[in-house]
Write a structure and sequence with these properties.
Number of strands: 9
Order of helices and strands: EEEEEEEEE
Low-confidence stretches: none
Distance between the termini: 26 Å
Radius of gyration: 14 Å
Largest sheet: 4 strands, antiparallel
Oligomer: single chain
Mean pLDDT: 91
Strand order of the largest sheet: 2-3-4-5
Amino acid sequence: NLAIALGDIPETLPRVEDEGSPLFSPDSLTVFDHGGRAHVAATLRHSGAVAIWDVSDVTAPAFVTTVAVGQLEAGGVDEDGSTIRPEGISASPDGRWILTANEEESSVSLVRSLVAEE
């Protein structure tokens, strides 16, 4: 299990603050290898974002970054969270790009991975 740390997700991103609901709601995962290091990227449905971790050492996963997706985020810190709601995700094998399907916005985001710029 990999817990999502509150400090890893910028406070400016939406989140659900409803007792019994997850703050970020990780939904879909994809994996890629960059520079010989294994990474996992996850959509955060309630935050309208993608989070990336370096999981090369499975006993000590390391948070890398969070990237907002979509164009017209209107969510907040409330019972609904993101108005983008990314769900599906895929990445190129080398992590140069990540693609999300954004359910509520009816859009697709192509993210040039910050991991690939290291």
